[in-house]
Design a protein that fits this description.
With about 240 residues, the chain is mainly alpha-helical. It contains ten helices and no strands. Helix 3 runs antiparallel to helix 10 and helix 5 packs antiparallel against helix 6.
Length: about 240
C-alpha cells in the first residue's frame, strides 16, 4: 500500500495575488528610501563647468562610493517601476486604466533617463575621469547635469498620471488633488532650470534638491495610501 502525497496549499495562498499587490504597493516607500541612501552615498556632484581638479577629486577620489551609489540607484529604479505597476493595477480596478498606463510609461521614461545619468557618472568614476582627458570629463559631467534636469518631465508626468487617476477614481479628495497638481507644476518647472549659475541653474538648489524632494514625498504618500487600502490581488 502506498500513501498518497500530501500537497500543502499554504505557500500558494500565502504568496498569492494579494501578497504581491501589497508588496509592490509598498515599493514606492522602498524606492524613495533607496534614492535617499544613494544620494547620501553619492555626495555633492561637481558643478557645471567645474575645474579638472574638482572633477578628479570627486570622480577618482570617491570612486568606490560613487559606484556603490550607482548599484543602490539601480535597485531604487526597479522599485519605482514596480510601484508604478501597482498604481496601474489599482487604477485598472477602478476603471481608470488610461491614467495607469500613463503612470507606467512615465516611470519607464524617468528610469531610462535617470539610469543614463547614473551610467555617465559611473563611467566617469570607473575609468574616464582618471584617464587624464579633462575636456571629456568636464563635458560628460555637464551632460550628466543636463540629463538630471530633463528627468523633471517624466517625473511630473508620473505625479500627474497617478494623481489625476486617483482623483478621477474618487480615491482622493479635491483638496489632496489640488496639492498634487501644485506638485506637478513645481516639478515641471524643474525642466526649465537652465540659468548659468545660482538657484535656477542645472546644479542649483531647485533642480538638485527641491524638485526631486517633491517627487519623493509624493511617491511615499501615494505608496502609503495604497498599502492601507484592501488588496484584491486580481491584477497579480
Amino acid at each position: 500500500m502506498s500513501a498518497s502525497p500530501t500537497v500543502s496549499t499554504a505557500p500558494a495562498s500565502m504568496y498569492g495575488g494579494a501578497f504581491w499587490e501589497r508588496m509592490w504597493r509598498s515599493a514606492g516607500i522602498q524606492s524613495a528610501g533607496l534614492f535617499i541612501v544613494a544620494a547620501f552615498l553619492y555626495g555633492p556632484q561637481p558643478h557645471v563647468g567645474a575645474s579638472s581638479g574638482d572633477l578628479a577629486a570627486f570622480y577618482v577620489g570617491d570612486r568606490a562610493r560613487i559606484l556603490i551609489a550607482a548599484f543602490v540607484s539601480g535597485f531604487a529604479t526597479l522599485n519605482l517601476l514596480w510601484f508604478a505597476a501597482a498604481i496601474r493595477a489599482a487604477l485598472a480596478e477602478a476603471g481608470k486604466d488610461g491614467w495607469g498606463s500613463a503612470a507606467t510609461a512615465s516611470s519607464a521614461a524617468f528610469c531610462a533617463l535617470f539610469l543614463l545619468f547614473v551610467t555617465v557618472v559611473a563611467a566617469l568614476a570607473y575609468s574616464i575621469a582618471g584617464a587624464g582627458d579633462a575636456a571629456l570629463a568636464s563635458g560628460l559631467n555637464d551632460f550628466a547635469w543636463a540629463c538630471f534636469v530633463l528627468t523633471s518631465f517624466p517625473r511630473a508626468m508620473l505625479i500627474m498620471a497617478g494623481s489625476f487617476g486617483l482623483w478621477r477614481a474618487s480615491l482622493i479628495s479635491n483638496a489632496t488633488f489640488v496639492v498634487c497638481v501644485a506638485g506637478v507644476v513645481l516639478v515641471l518647472f524643474g525642466g526649465s532650470t537652465w540659468m548659468s549659475d545660482g538657484f535656477w541653474a542645472p546644479d542649483g538648489v531647485f533642480s538638485r534638491v527641491i524638485s526631486p524632494a517633491i517627487g519623493l514625498v509624493w511617491v511615499v504618500l501615494v505608496s502609503a495610501f495604497l498599502v492601507r487600502r484592501p488588496a484584491s490581488g486580481t491584477g497579480w
